[in-house]
Each structure stands twice: as structure tokens, then as C-alpha cells.
Amino acid sequence: MAILSAVLLLAVLSWSSGASACEPSKEHPMSAIFTGLNGVGLFVEVSPPKYEESLSCYRREEKCADERGLTLKKRANFLEKVQKTNQEYPKCLHRENLIKAIKAQINEKVLPYLVQGSACKDSSVVILGNRQEMKDHLSLGRKDKLTILVKVQILDQITPAIAVLSTDFYRPDIGHGELYEKTFLDRTTAIPINLPEDKIEEMVLRHISYINISTREAHE
Asked: FRET label pair with 100: which of 44, 71, 135, 198, CA 20 to 30 Å apart?
């Protein structure tokens, strides 16, 4: 009985030791931007501001008008403008939809290679709500944090209007120019917003697919 108890205790201790220590990844990031990475922040920005305002009122246009306390005439103009913008704006380019798609890509292609730390806790993407939160994330003094900025800029002075989708990567200890030379990850995609929704979604997903880590083992 004593021998059996000792064997069981040894097994428990061995399991606990294995559970508390992180297994090092056999694949090593080829780019300096992902080496020793311990956190990812994501900020999605839509511009010009009038589009951000309209999209923030999506499916709640009447409530947005109420919150602004507009006169009847101004209210009618506001609702007409917001509803027209939201009707024409591609759904897959809505901020919440972009965040969902990009977060899924980061979870699959980036987070598995993050340094987990002694507690082996799963990392998660930090969603940044505005420019100030992005600046705060960049100024934390942590050299192991990556900030990804995805911008949607609508060029509506031309017909058809164009959505310019761009992705930038920032890390405090790597200059942006140097970072670009080492990774070639910064991307820009021009999308005519009069295209069918499924075609726009296809272009968006292709753009997002460049957010990934190339590893040495994968290229050997």
C-alpha cells in the first residue's frame, strides 16, 4: 500500500511539474517583430470621422438622433445621411466585423508563438478602442508587445468610392522603417465599395491573411 501511494504521489508531482512549465516551441519566428513577443494589441480605425459616426449608429439610428437632441429638420437630415451611409457601406468593413475577422487570424497564426510565461496562461488579443488607447499600449515601455493598426479610409471624392484597407505593425523596440524592411508585412488594399459584398469580403480576408508568423522550421 505504501509503495502504491508513493507511485501515485510521484505521478501527481510529475504531472504538476509538467503543467507548470511551458514547452518551448520547436518553430522559431523568422522576423524580429515576433521574437520574444508576449502580447498583441489591435486597433481598427475607420476614417473620415463621418463614417465612424454613421457606423456607430448602425441599427440604432433613431436612438442616435435622440441622443443628439436635434430639431425636427436637423433630425431628418441626420437620419437621411446616416441611413444612406450605412446602407452603402460594406458590412464586412464595419469595425466590429473587421475586429472579429482579424482577431480570429491573430488567434490562429500569431498567439501560438507568443512567450507564455511561467504560469502558461493563454494570451489574448487586447482590443484598443481609440487612438489614445493605442498610444497608451505603445507607451507601456514593454519591449515584448506588438500593436497592430488596421485602417479603413474611405475615398468618396471619386466614383465609385474606394475603401483603402491598410495594416501597420508597431513594436516599441523596433523602428517602423526597420520593422518594414525585416517583415514586409505592411499592406494596403484598395477596394471599390460598389463591388458585390462577397467579393469585398474575399479581398478583406486576403488582406488579413498576411497577418501571420513565418517560422524557420516551416521553411526548412
From this structure: 135
Give the C-alpha separation, 215 to 220, whole Å.
9
Hey, what's the cell of 70? 436635434
pTM more than 0.70: yes
DSSP string, 118-149: TTTPPP-PEEE-SHHHHHHHHTS--TTEEEEE
Q: How far is CA 60 from CA 66, 79, 185, 198, in A?
A: 10, 10, 36, 25
* 110 closest CA partner among 35, 172, 220, 206: 35
CA distances from 3 to 7, 12, 16, 25 (A): 6, 14, 20, 37
Q: Three-class SS of residue 15?
A: helix
